[in-house]
Amino acid sequence: MILITRAGLLLVLSDSYWHAHFAGDPSILNQQVQINGSAFTIVGVVRHSGLMDANPSAVFLPISMQQAVVPGKIDQLGDPLNRWLNLIGLSHPM
């Protein structure tokens, strides 16, 4: 299942990817990029550090769009025995 919002397939770029590949150009918002044949709309840029420094991410996607990024792969969201996702959160504001 691919969940498509009313706005379509969405993604957020990491700050480092935005600067490296788009020279920090703010006009990229609402532009589309292709990932494995699917068009995603850039809806933001996020600066992150600390949590994922060992394996920095270039883009962030809603989890529901897994099938759009990896078409033909098993539905990892629908398999209760699949353990591919790690969630990190805060129990209280910093």
What can you tell me about this protein's structure?
There is one protein chain. The chain starts with 9 loop residues before the first strand and ends in a 25-residue tail after the last helix. It is globular. The chain is built from two helices and four strands. The protein has 94 residues and is of the alpha+beta class. Strands 2-3-1-4 form a four-stranded mixed beta sheet. The model is unreliable at 1-5 (pLDDT under 50).
Notable characteristics:
single chain, 94 residues, alpha+beta, 4-stranded mixed beta sheet, 2 helices, globular, disordered N terminus
Largest pleated sheet:
4 strands, mixed
What is the helix content?
10-25%
Look at the helices and sheets and give the structural class.
alpha+beta
The rough form would be described as globular
Strand percentage lies at 15-25%
What is the spatial order of strands in the main beta sheet? 2-3-1-4
How far from one another are the termini? 36 Å
Number of strands: 4
Radius of gyration: 15 Å
Outline:
It contains two helices and four strands, in the order βαβββα. It has helices at 15-22, 66-69, and strands at residues 10-14, 32-35, 38-46, 59-60. The longest helix is centred in the N-terminal third of the chain and has 8 residues, at 15-22.
Helix and strand layout, with pairings?
Elements: E1 10-14, H1 15-22, E2 32-35, E3 38-46, E4 59-60, H2 66-69
Parallel strand pairs: 1-3
Antiparallel strand pairs: 1-4, 2-3
